[in-house]
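Next up, a specimen:

>
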Amino acid sequence: MTGGDERYNAAGRLRGSVYDAEMERLQEQLVLLQYWIQSQGLKVLVIFEGRGSAGKGGVIKRITERTSPRTVRIAALPKPTERERSQWYFQRYVEHLPSAGEMVLFDRSWYNRSNVEWVMGFCTEDEHQEFLRSCPEFERMLVRSGTVVLKYWFSVSAEEQLRRFEARNAEPLKRWKLSEMDLAERELYVRYSMAKDTTFQYTDIKQAPWYVVPSDDKRAARLNCISHLLSQFDYEDVAPPPVELPEIRDIPYVRPPMHEQTFVPQLF
């Protein structure tokens, strides 16, 4: 309930000022977590799944906004090639898994098989059933090998998804976000619900459980997800102290004339 809570506006959504202040604090903590992951040699895999427009991309952007791409990187794979389609299903994902000292954020993952591919008929029923059998074992193997596996499902209502799709359609600068797959997903909303429920039935395992993030309020969803992510680590502040900047060495050298270089027009 948000009644009487000044953090929320009249529509029950988190106020921007509250969001901005808390996001700044959380992003500072993400940087500290980054240093901790590096120092401890942790291997961290974070999977983000959910319906189109549920807010996966937004939270990934906020997580990476102030962290180093050398430590916190994004894996967002395109459609598989013909060669990849002939491989073991998990094979193309394995090369993107984290090494020691890394956190990898999967913007969609191998769960394409039990959601998009199954609903749209891009895989056979046998392939779907084999995924549901093998995925839990694959993830247990990752955990046994020392990889921290966190799985977040961003859950958006049919009404809010429609509102977001309509907003994208009305704004030319955002229309590229509204793909044919989004249109199909809207039409097959119930089938996607069935796919999600089946996915959870088989893959919500003790070693790598699903964490559901209600995301009708995007701001609250981002804060809740990042707060939970941080809470999964007993990290300490191991950020390096400020360094002493060296003086420029005095080396005899005459640079070529500036007018020989081509500069961009100074419009501002």
Observations:
- The first strand starts at residue 43 and ends at 50.
- The chain has ten helices and five strands.
- The chain has a mean pLDDT of 96.
- The first helix runs from residue 16 to 40.
